[in-house]
C-alpha cells in the first residue's frame, strides 16, 4: 500500500509537469522512479505501460476536437514504434549496472534541452493546419524519438514536438494532437519490447503502473489550473534543472568522481540553473506591450495556445 501511494505521488508530479508544459511526463516520472530506487529498465517499462492508457485517452480527446492530422500520425508514429521497440529491447538486455548510467545520460541530455528550451527559447512562427513534412524528415525523427523515449524512459515529446514546432509548417494544436496520438503507438510498442525482454519482471510492475495512472488522473485538473497560473518558461526551467541535477549525481557516482571535482560539477550546474531560473522569472514578469499599429491583424490575433507553446 505504501509503495502504491509513493507511485501515485510520482504520477501526480509527472502529470503536473506534463499538463503545464505539454511534454515531459515520461522524463519526470522515470527520474522520480529511479530516484525512489526502481531499476532503470523497470521504471521505463512501467512508465510506458501507464502511457498506453494515458496516450489513448489523450488521442481520443484530440480527435474529438479535430487536432489530429492522421497522415502526420502515421508518418511519425510508425517509425517511432520501431525505434521504441529497439530501445526497449536494448535497455532490457543490459544489466542494472550498465542500464542505470545509460538512462541517466539520456535523461540528463533531455533535461538540459528542456532547461535551455524553456529558459532561452525564442518565439516560433507557426503555419496553418496541415503538414508539408516529408517522410524523409518524419521517419528519422520518429525513429530517433522512439528509441530515445524507450531507452531513456522518456523524451518523445521533447524530441518530436519541439522539432516539429521549430519547423513552423504545422499549427501548434495539430502538432500537439498528432504527437500525442502517435505516442500511443510508441508506448504500445515499447511495452511489447519490455514484455519480451523483462518477462516476469514486467508483470510485477503493476503497483507502479496503477500508481502512475491514478496519480495522472488526480493531477489532470490541477495541471490545467497550473498552466494558467505559472509561466511555462519558469516551470520548464525549474523542472529541467531538477532532471539535470538528479541524473548528474548518478553519473558522478558511476564514474567515481571524487571531491573536489564532484562538488565543482554540482556547483556549476546549480549556478547555471539558478541563473536560468532568474532569467526565466524576469522574462515571465516583463510587461506585455500592445502590438504596434503596423503589425498585421493576423499576427495580433495569434492563437493563445500558440503563444503559450512558443514560450
Automatic annotation (TrEMBL):
GO cellular component: plasma membrane
Keyword Zinc-finger: no
Swiss-Prot/TrEMBL keywords: Cell membrane, Membrane, Transmembrane, Transmembrane helix
Superkingdom of this protein's organism: Bacteria
Localization terms from the record: Cell membrane; Membrane
UniProt-listed Pfam families: TauE
Topology versus the membrane: Multi-pass membrane protein
Major place of residence: membrane
Spans traversing the lipid bilayer: 70-92, 98-116, 137-156, 176-196, 208-227, 259-281
Protein family per UniProt: Belongs to the 4-toluene sulfonate uptake permease (TSUP) (TC 2.A.102) family.
Name the record gives this protein: Probable membrane transporter protein
Amino acid at each position: 500500500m505504501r509503495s502504491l501511494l509513493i507511485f501515485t505521488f510520482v504520477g501526480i508530479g509527472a502529470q503536473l509537469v506534463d499538463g503545464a508544459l505539454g511534454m515531459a511526463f515520461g522524463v519526470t516520472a522515470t527520474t522520480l522512479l529511479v530516484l525512489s530506487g526502481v531499476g532503470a529498465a523497470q521504471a521505463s517499462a512501467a512508465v510506458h505501460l501507464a502511457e498506453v492508457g494515458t496516450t489513448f485517452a489523450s488521442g481520443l480527446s484530440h480527435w474529438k476536437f479535430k487536432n489530429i492530422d492522421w497522415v502526420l500520425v502515421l508518418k511519425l508514429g510508425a517509425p517511432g514504434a520501431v525505434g521504441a521497440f529497439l530501445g526497449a529491447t536494448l535497455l532490457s538486455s543490459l544489466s542494472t549496472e550498465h542500464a542505470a548510467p545509460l538512462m541517466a545520460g539520456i535523461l540528463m541530455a533531455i533535461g538540459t534541452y528542456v532547461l535551455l528550451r524553456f529558459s532561452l527559447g525564442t518565439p516560433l512562427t507557426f503555419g496553418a493546419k496541415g503538414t508539408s513534412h516529408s517522410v524523409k524528415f518524419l521517419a528519422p525523427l520518429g525513429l530517433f524519438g522512439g528509441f530515445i523515449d524507450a531507452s531513456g524512459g522518456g523524451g518523445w515529446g521533447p524530441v518530436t514536438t519541439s522539432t516539429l514546432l521549430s519547423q513552423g509548417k504545422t499549427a501548434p494544436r495539430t502538432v500537439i494532437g498528432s504527437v500525442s496520438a502517435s505516442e500511443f503507438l510508441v508506448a504500445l510498442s515499447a511495452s511489447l519490447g519490455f514484455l519480451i525482454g523483462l518477462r516476469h519482471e514486467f508483470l510485477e510492475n503493476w503497483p507502479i503502473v496503477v500508481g502512475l495512472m491514478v496519480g495522472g488522473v488526480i493531477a489532470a485538473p490541477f495541471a490545467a489550473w497550473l498552466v494558467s497560473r505559472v509561466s511555462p518558461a519558469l516551470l520548464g526551467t525549474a523542472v529541467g534543472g531538477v532532471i539535470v541535477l538528479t541524473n548528474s549525481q548518478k553519473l558522478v557516482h558511476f564514474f567515481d568522481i571524487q571531491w573536489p571535482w564532484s562538488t565543482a560539477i554540482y556547483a556549476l550546474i546549480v549556478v547555471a540553473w539558478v541563473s536560468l531560473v532568474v532569467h526565466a522569472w524576469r522574462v515571465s514578469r516583463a510587461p506585455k506591450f500592445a502590438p504596434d499599429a503596423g503589425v498585421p491583424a493576423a499576427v495580433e490575433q495569434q492563437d493563445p495556445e500558440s503563444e503559450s507553446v512558443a514560450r
